[in-house]
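Minutes, project check-in
Item: structure for the 76-residue chain
Input as provided by the requester:
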Amino acid sequence: MQSPTPGTLNPAPVTHYENFPVASWLCPATLRAPIAAIYHFARTADDLADEGEVTADQRIAELTAYREELHACAQR
């Protein structure tokens, strides 16, 4: 996975029905981007955990890589 650089992080579009795009308009405008980033992080982790037809070992490997990337971002 390629980590985004600060200032270039744009939330990915939601690819399946969720309430977040509607609920996000209830947030103050200054908080929408940070909240969207948190939402997309959690949504991606959830998708890695239970979407698609992959083995449990593949899911664990993908989640482990995702966690390692998160830790690497925190070290910057």
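Outcome recorded: Residues 4 and 58 are 24 Å apart (CA to CA).
No further action items on this chain.
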